[in-house]
Specification:
- 2 copies of one chain form a homodimer.
- The longest helix of chain A has 15 residues, at 209-223.
- The first copy, chain A, is 26% helix and 26% strand.
- Chain A is of the alpha+beta class and 349 residues long.
- Chain A has helices spanning 2-6, 23-26, 39-46, 61-67, 78-85, 87-96, 110-119, 209-223, 256-259, 264-272, 333-344, and strands at 15-17, 31-33, 51-52, 73-74, 104-107, 124-128, 138-141, 158-162, 168-176, 182-184, 188-193, 196-202, 227-235, 240-246, 286-293, 308-311, 322-330.
- In chain A, helix 2 links the parallel strand 1 and strand 2 (31-33).
- Chain A has 3 domains: 2-84, Rossmann fold (3-Layer(aba) Sandwich); 103-162, ATP-grasp fold, A domain (Dna Ligase, domain 1, 2-Layer Sandwich); 168-344, ATP-grasp fold, B domain (D-amino Acid Aminotransferase, Chain A, domain 1, 2-Layer Sandwich), CATH 3.30.470.
- Chain A has 11 helices and 17 strands.
- The interface between A and B is large, with 38 and 38 residues.
């Protein structure tokens, strides 16, 4: 989707991909095949670019830094990605800006784990520091007792988060350009099923979003953050807690392709290339997005009217894998969601 | 734009292109390079497809027919393209359905030309029968006298059309699917400068459009026409005359990417693959599109807010060449057009 949104802007884009039938390669005439593990491949690819960005934060920033030509424009900066891809510095960053999150502790060994069991008596979640997403690398202990064997499941270390009783989950994305222009995309409500985003609808209003936006503006200015920053939130009924950050375009803002006059992908490119950031404008009063999560079966797409289908061209259909999404527009976010959910039933995945 | 709209539908698309940096190759990981003149290239390409369609009607239908595997699904059918790409059978087709056009005569030789000079005393236009577009192959004789040398300019023959005093130019597109579903895109007003489409805005209403739509529905049903059919019209103030047809997606409906919930490109794919055709819905009360026509200079794109930029990735900047377009949405078509025209000024082409 980054590439599909780059072409009409007149950018000559090239993607670094593992295979010629990767989703991104399919929509780019200038795909360069190679491995992220191979320094020669990386150097060859990076040497030809004016600017580079990422669709995933799970990159080896140290290796990338060694392979990059000196003046290559990288957005967001590698140091910023590094500080967010690891949950420990991410939590410390949020604490430093007094941005409320779920209570947390670092967990590197059995002693840390015992302490966590005492502190978070009402239950906690152990999350591996790196490479965790969609519930991978996350271990839930409802009764507040953990099996220490879980520590062997990752050699990146963990953080523990105390259970947060929340009313609903929300998400928001901020965009900051090279020269410091800043826009906020609409606040949305997300519904997670089995730790994966199932649906998003909006726009949502919450009085806590204004001060939070100011805090993030300060944080992004200080970090010289460039591009889209996605923020997942817990609404406890009293306050907004930050669940986690993603230094990239994000599933929770995929609705923006159809529901905003400028999509998150276009904002990301504009921010990185220091083009003006358009005012955020809705094309409809309400919108919703429902993910098309794989079920491991034979795929049968639905083509019912009105929903906007975005199929990603993935060939492997694993249960729970994000294979595409549909967006709907309506008078309210809830109405749009109802419609999207009913259309979702016509897909066999 | 056909390809950009095919990817999200989950179609595995491949383009046959002359060069790897052709606009279409840039947005397709499965570009197949070859020449439309080379039967081996064509056969190799066509043998791997389930279905094929065209972005231009200027194809050698006889050669294509010889190179096509027997059961390849081609939309629109080659016979239909053949009957429209040549202005003579196109005019005869419209006459057969009593669809009003500018008065016309076939012109193959000097004698025909003399006759035309007598019939169209108030002036006429000589148009070569094949391969004419954007004013290429069109010769205007305002005083009704032609130099017979012009007949040497094409070996495809000509038709002559008597001048039509018109109030404004309009355009409309119809879509018909394999199983006969039929939709009509909004009627729009187009402004031509130097025989090239400069801007389009809409929606426009005209009482003549309802009966015309019925005539075209009959025509398309009879021809088993599949895909988008674009119709350019003269509004004489009294009636609507058909100027010309294009058996494909068309510049006059490029606004549809941003202004309709389903673009003409998505309609074309859906029609050809016999998917349901969504109801036509506007995302905004008014819309406008302004073409970015080359001026032969050094290109400087504008990135002002709100306009949707669609840059085509063409490398050669010839004066008058269509290099891209911008779309705007507003309360009325006229307001959208004003805005688009003012933003157009920020581009240097």
């Amino acid at each position: 989707m980054l590439l599909l949104n780059a072409h009409p802007l007149g950018l000559e884009v090239s993607v670094f991909a593992a295979q010629s039938n990767d989703p991104a390669s399919q929509v780019c005439g200038r795909a360069v095949l190679g491995s992220m593990e191979d320094r020669t491949d990386l150097r060859r690819y990076l040497s030809k670019l004016d600017a580079v960005t990422f669709e995933s934060e799970f990159v080896d920033t140290a290796k990338l830094a060694r392979c990059m030509p000196q003046n290559l424009h990288v957005f967001p900066r590698l140091e910023v990605i590094e500080g967010i891809q690891d949950r420990l510095p991410q939590k410390r960053l949020l604490d430093r800006y007094k941005i409320p999150t779920a209570p947390w502790r670092e967990v590197s060994n059995k002693r840390d784990l015992s302490e966590v069991e005492n502190v978070f008596e009402n239950g906690f979640v152990l999350k591996q520091r790196r490479f965790g997403y969609d519930g991978y690398g996350t271990f839930v202990f409802k009764n507040g007792k953990a099996d220490a064997k879980v520590l062997l499941k990752s050699n990146h270390g963990f953080i523990a988060e105390g259970f947060v009783p929340f009313k609903r989950e929300l998400a928001i994305s901020f965009v900051r350009s090279v020269s410091g222009a800043f826009v906020t995309l609409p606040l949305v409500q997300s519904v997670q099923v089995n730790s994966r985003c199932f649906s998003v609808h909006g726009p949502i209003s919450h009085r806590g979003i204004k001060p939070l936006t100011q805090q993030f503006k300060k944080l992004m200015d200080d970090l010289d953050y460039v591009g889209v920053l996605a923020v997942e939130l817990f609404d406890t009924g009293k306050e907004l807690l930050v669940n986690e950050l993603a230094p990239r375009v994000h599933n929770s803002a995929h609705y923006s392709i159809d529901a905003l006059t400028c999509s998150q992908f276009e904002y990301h490119w504009r921010a990185g290339l220091d083009l003006p950031l358009p005012r955020v404008e809705l094309k409809s009063k309400g919108f919703a997005m429902v993910n098309l999560l794989g079920e491991g079966g034979r795929v049968k797409l639905s083509y019912k009217p009105m929903g906007h289908l975005h199929w990603y061209g993935k060939f492997e259909n694993r249960p729970g894998r994000k294979l595409g999404h549909i967006t709907t527009l309506d008078e309210t976010g809830k109405k749009a969601l109802e419609r999207a959910l009913s259309w979702r039933k016509d897909f066999q995945l």
